[in-house]
UniProtKB/TrEMBL annotation:
Name recorded for this polypeptide: ABC transporter substrate-binding protein
Recorded coiled-coil stretches: none
Organism for this UniProt entry: Afipia broomeae ATCC 49717
UniProt GO BP: molybdate ion transport
Pfam families: SBP_bac_11 (PF13531)
SUPFAM superfamilies per UniProt: Periplasmic binding protein-like II
One term of GO molecular function: molybdate ion binding
InterPro entries for this protein: ModA/WtpA (IPR050682)
Length: 352
């Protein structure tokens, strides 16, 4: 037994190795060889986890936002997908409001590049960013270390944070969207614009300002310009919480707001236009209130994407970015209401 390695618990996700017989050179060599075999993304994830500490939790009930696309075309979700993700040929962590387009997008990509399995997580981009910095996720009480090959957000600010940590160097804009107000079918509360969201008879379901990019970078400044941000937030910046008697901040708005309107616990909420279209395709009893340009921000909203510098699948990452620049890639997103990017926008540029 004196030649065995003992593992002494240090934290939930960390161990200390001690050797009872320091003269066992063969064992030391074997351990060094084992460490050398660790993939770059896993080593980076462990280092990041040490530096940051708390690993973010995948929200309860969001299993459909975690998927694994096998090379045979089969798709798994939730825990099984998380466990398969380290075996993926490509890992994508993308802003969650494109979740409904991803089966089509990944299918089209795999038709062009057969033999590439894809791991996918579609959650709020701020939450994805936290997981990149922490080096992984916690799901149902278990930790899953790792990181993406490619990350996408709805604002360049998130990518600039990765640039500061030397985790990403270049990006491109790959599509556009705009803000709308989702309401119940027939708009029974007669919501006509932004200021109606603070009427005493209108219950709102709004993206949270902590990690949902739609609120962090877009909706909040519209609400502030109209002078109603504090009436909605009441000084609170939280997730899955009531801020007033009539407002709820979501964890994942693109899943929750349609459900809350359907359940008649909310009357209206700011969402992306594409989310309205998806809810209608799914048969939801909802309608949309279109907003003027200064409130919809249709000329401002840009989705940005880039490969992580520590990607362990560089060729597959480049292949996916190339696919997004193609007619097939742009067309796959356009089917779901996203606005195509221009040729100039689809050129990779350095993150300044």
């Amino acid at each position: 037994m004196n030649r065995l390695v003992q593992t002494l618990p240090r934290t939930r996700s960390d161990v200390v190795l001690t050797i009872r017989n320091p003269g066992s050179k063969s064992l030391v060599v074997a351990l060094l060889g084992l460490l050398a075999l660790m993939s770059e993304p896993v080593r980076t994830a462990v280092a990041q986890r040490e530096a940051v500490g708390t690993i973010p939790v995948i929200p309860v009930g969001k299993e459909n936002d975690v998927k694994f696309y096998a090379v045979d075309g089969s798709v798994t979700k939730g825990r099984t997908a998380l466990e398969l993700m380290p075996k993926s040929d490509l890992v994508l962590w993308l802003a969650g409001n494109q979740f409904f387009a991803m089966d089509e997008v990944i299918s089209a990509f795999q038709r062009k590049r057969a033999g590439i399995s894809v791991g996918l997580i579609t959650l709020p981009p701020g939450l994805l960013l936290q997981a990149i910095k922490a080096g992984g996720w916690t799901y149902d009480g278990k930790e899953y270390p790792g990181g993406p090959d490619i990350y996408a957000s709805v604002n360049l600010g998130h990518l600039k944070e990765l640039k500061k940590s030397n985790l990403m160097s270049s990006f491109m804009v790959y599509m556009h969207n705009e803000l709308q107000i989702m309401v119940a079918k027939g708009n029974p509360k007669k919501v006509l614009g932004i200021k109606d969201l603070v009427r005493v008879d209108v219950r709102t379901s709004m993206p949270n300002p902590v990690n949902e990019g739609i609120m962090q970078f877009y909706a909040r400044k519209v609400l502030e310009r109209h002078g109603i941000w504090q009436q909605i937030a009441a000084g609170k910046e939280c997730v899955s919480c009531d801020t007033t008697a009539t407002n709820w901040f979501t964890a994942v708005h693109h899943r929750e707001t349609p459900e809350r309107i359907k359940a008649n616990v909310s009357d209206a909420g700011i969402v992306w236009k594409t989310e309205v279209l998806e809810a209608l395709r799914a048969g939801a009893d909802i309608d949309a209130v279109e907003l003027p340009e200064q409130d919809s921000l249709r000329n401002e909203v840009s989705y940005v994407i880039g490969a992580l510098n520590n990607s362990g699948h560089r060729q597959a990452s480049e292949a996916f970015l190339g696919f997004l620049r193609s007619l097939e890639g742009q067309g796959a997103y356009a089917k779901f209401g996203f606005v195509k990017a221009s040729g100039d926008e689809l050129v990779l540029k350095p993150i300044e």
